[in-house]
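tool=predict chain=A
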Amino acid sequence: MDSRGQPQPMATQNNCEEGDNICANDNMCKEVKASLAHSTVALVEEEPEEIDPWDLPELKDTGVPWSALDTKGKVWRVLVSVGKFILLLGFLYIFICSLDLLSSAFQLVGGKAAGDIFQDNSVLSNPLAGLVIGVLVTLLVQSSSTSSSIVVSMVSSGLLSVQLAVPIIMGTNIGTSVTNTLVAMTQAGDRSTFRRAFAGATVHDFFNWLSVLVLLPLEVASGYLYKITKLIIDSFQIESGEAPELLNVITDVLTESIIQ
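tool=predict ok
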């Protein structure tokens, strides 16, 4: 009873209930905090997958498939393909004509005197010297096909014999090893790409070097390459003084107009 004579059990009960609620909330907070503090769950970091540095990248075709093209796109693609094929044939024709021009130019400029100089040259008669000459020429022009074409033209014009040309051709194959190494160096920005590019260049280099180390001593000792090529030419049964009409029919139109 209070001073007015009214009972107070409800207030006391409410206060107890509020206190119980507060205590319950506090206990819940404590329990939550305890559950977080004493949690047995361990965070496991996933290890990153190992990346193979020699693995090739996945190549994806980013072009539009044929089925997705409209009529205009299909016609355009066909025309582009035909144009590329015609350009390929045109460049091949120009390359063959350039070989014929080189041969004719060596005949006109050199003549018999130049042929005697090359044939009687003591430097070219040394196989190692011919090998070094092939390497140097390829380094200068940065193209083994160009240097090989020059040597082939000199042989066809009579300035060089086949025996002297064999070491020079082998030297051109070694000289192109520098070119592929330079190309591999351009990929140095990406470590994985550079690793694969330099490995491919090294394989090519060792193949050329090992081929020369094996074949050049055999050629010097036995002349087997010259004998094999002679057997191949003799099998064509080409008579002396007869010029074989292989590609001259289509190249003479351009080469004769330039030379004359």
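Residues 71-109 form the longest helix (39 residues). Residues 8-37 have pLDDT under 50 and may be disordered.
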